Amino acid sequence: MLTIHDVLETNQMIQKHNLDVRTITMGISLLDCCSSDGKTLCRNIYDKITSYGEHLVATGEDIAREYGVPIINKRVAVTPISLVAGASDLKDYVEVAKTMDRAAKEIGIDFIGGFSALVERGFTDGDRRLIDSIAESLACTELVCSSVAVGSTKAGINMDAVAEMGHVFKKLSELTKEQDALGCAKLVVFSNAVEDNPFMAGAFHGVTQGDCCVSVGVSGPGVVKRALENVKGEPFDVVAETIKKTAFKITRVGQLVAIEASKRLNVPFGIIDLSLAPTPAVGDSVADILEEMGLESCGASGTTAALALLNDAVKKGGLMASSRVGGLSGAFIPVSEDKGMLEAVGRGSLSLEKLEAMTCVCSVGLDMIAIPGDTSAATISAIIADEASIGMINNKTTAVRVIPVPGKSVGDTVEFGGLLGYCPIINVNKYKSDAFIARGGRIPAPMRSLTN
Amino acid sequence: MKVVITVVGMDRTGIIAAVSQIMAENEVNILTINQVILDGIFNMAMIVDMEKATIDLEQLQKLLKEKGNVLGVEIRAQNQKIFDAMHQVG
């Protein structure tokens, strides 16, 4: 029997501690849009997205109103465009990106992901055309997000792609320098990319998926932080149990919203992504949770252990609350989107090297980190290589979304606004990796890829 | 549909009467009412059944919000399923 305390607890989570459903993401396969004629291809893509996604936003808003829980973003993820456009006569895919942008605006969603290529083992001609189009495409569109998978545990790391992506980040930064390189916030490079991730910028609808599905990404760092305030000084067993119970409750809300959205849109339910996704709002920070465990500032020794416990407990708590779990599932550490992380960077306690260590134990990787504008393409590629190798060896997803901000250096701050927040420029090791990146080729798949 | 109505704010006379009146006028059946004072703040949770209601949830939310503004309290109406999902297993 529901008690008044249960009711009040739920509403306090929503109203005071920023519990929300971060995203409802509709995955749409575009495989049946292929055409040798570029114009036909774009028309097919536009028609399919706008017809399948027509009611997504209104449905999300209806559910949010009925249940009294905010649903922050409504998004669409599509089949990697390199696969969809590969057979077309298009010389580049900028027109496809513009088509996606138009379709996204037509249905009123916040972002559309899938301007993507999967090149872990090598490039097709379509992959190359896509990667060559990324910078211009993201610079001339608003809602399109792009991702490139450069490595995996099974495939190793495509170092030619890694080298190329350093240049793409630099070019995109230059093309969007009037907005402090905001374009780079819409681009992510993956190792062990997942096909059912509902979060941007890395969402795409994998080819193993059905025609269409809806997935939900939950959130709620503030709720976990609040729960831990009640167990100050208690041993870590108690901390882990508290996080698990809280994650269970958060995820049950996500599951409810996902099932409801699936039913109302008449589309199969995909997955729940058990994530703690911070926002720049006060009290909605993963760093605050780590500090609540007893660290003076995020980045202090012990931060990686604290994050490991948090990440694991979120999964254990959330797993039983949902019928199907997938995506990235874990704690995100996007620096510019987390007030606690920003403050930690600002006071010099959180470095790029510590963030890299943290990515070994959390859900993704180096995320939304502003770096000096004069960071070379080779250094960015080397950062990607480091991160991809962590993913490859540890059999987990890792990613890089860094923003080289033209004209800015350590000590400066860049303002992105909205959910993307602001960010102090973080220091990057000044020694060069040019000769390392210039080698190209493949880093072979590790021993642990041989599991059969 | 079962709906949970919550009222949070400073205690004063007539809150339950005012909310109940809206229910009666729109054929919304009250199933349970609970109230508690926490940290000096008045909290009420009312579970209602809207099966025979003459208005839908969105209209009820609007009426309650307007009444809440008059009374100086916050009134929310939410589908009960969100609370059941979070607090009840099975």
Count of separate structural domains of chain A = 2
Strand content of chain B: 35-45%
N-to-C SSE string of chain B, H for helix and E for strand: EHEEHEH
Count every helix of chain A, treating DSSP H or I runs of 4 or more residues as helices: 15
Oligomer: heterodimer
CATH class of the largest domain in chain A: Alpha Beta
Helix coverage percent of chain A? 40-55%
What CATH architecture of the largest domain in chain A would you give? Answer: Alpha-Beta Barrel
Q: Determine the mean pLDDT of chain B.
A: 94
CATH class of chain B equals: Alpha Beta
What's the arrangement of strands in the largest beta sheet of chain B?
Answer: 2-3-1-4
Keyword list:
heterodimer; A: 452 residues; alpha/beta; Anaerobic Ribonucleotide-triphosphate Reductase Large Chain; eleven-stranded mixed beta sheet; two-stranded parallel ribbon; 15 helices; 42% helix; 18% strand; B: 90 residues; alpha+beta; Alpha-Beta Plaits; four-stranded antiparallel beta sheet; 3 helices; 4 strands; 38% strand; globular
